[in-house]
Design brief:
The complex is a heterodimer of chains A (112) and B (115). Chain A has no helices and eleven strands. With 112 residues, chain A is mostly beta strands. Chain B has 115 residues and is mainly beta. The chains are: A mainly beta (112), B mainly beta (115).
């Protein structure tokens, strides 16, 4: 999985609770991304960060928040405002524009 | 609207046979096209990246082609193995040369290799 770790692999939460997904990379990449994958759909971008202390909303940022305090780390918080949080979440990083993105192993979040 | 369409949605072939997966896109401006392999429950792994000027690229038994004029790409798998069973995702990179690179993901082709 290219030097990117995500934890935990499986996560279960009750509706109404916030939950934070971890993403760490040791590739010295500047840019990091969070995607959501649902059955039958392509990956959708939640948030991305090109440098430390800066991040931008992707296509489906509502109900999510992120931070980028360190180059290696880009945690994603799924808040209670996210209406349909159950999904497979993928973190990725890239060296620079137009270079391949390396993906982590993913976290499967189930909210009941 | 930028779109990436893949066909077929799913494919089952016998071990040792060849197969070709298709990708059509309507992404503008175009920067590059990527193929990823995703095993069930895992993150995608890059197979190839092709820019506008490249029309074929190989990675072992995987060969990708790109026709930028017709906006079509294919991924050919030779002498399939059981380990090739996975989803194959076509991704097109677009957007301007400044700011964030915009990726559009296809929904993937689910390939199953049977012994």
């Amino acid at each position: 999985d290219g030097g990117i770790t995500q934890s935990p692999k499986y996560l279960f939460r009750k509706e109404g609770q916030n939950v934070t997904l971890s993403c760490e990379q040791n590739l010295n990449h500047d840019a990091m991304y969070w995607y959501r994958q649902d059955p039958g759909q392509g990956l959708r971008l939640i948030y991305y960060s090109q440098i430390v202390n800066d991040f931008q909303k992707g296509d489906i940022a509502e109900g999510y928040s992120v931070s980028r305090e360190k180059k290696e780390s880009f945690p994603l918080t799924v808040t209670s405002a996210q209406k349909n949080p159950t999904a497979f979440y993928l973190c990725a990083s890239t060296k620079a524009r137009n270079y391949e993105q390396y993906f982590g192993p993913g976290t499967r979040l189930t909210v009941t | 609207k930028n779109q990436v369409e893949q066909s077929p949605q799913s494919l089952i072939i016998l071990e040792g046979k060849n197969c070709t997966l298709q990708c059509n896109y309507t992404v503008s401006p175009f920067s590059n096209l990527r193929w990823y392999k995703q095993d069930t429950g895992r993150g995608p792994v890059s197979l190839t990246i092709m820019t506008f000027s490249e029309n074929t690229k190989s990675n072992g038994r995987y060969t990708a082609t790109l026709d930028a004029d017709t906006k079509q790409s294919s991924l050919h798998i030779t002498a399939s193995q059981l380990s090739d069973s996975a989803s194959y995702i076509c991704v097109v990179s677009g957007g301007s040369n400044f700011g964030n690179e915009k990726l559009t993901f296809g929904t993937g082709t689910r390939l199953t290799i049977i012994p």
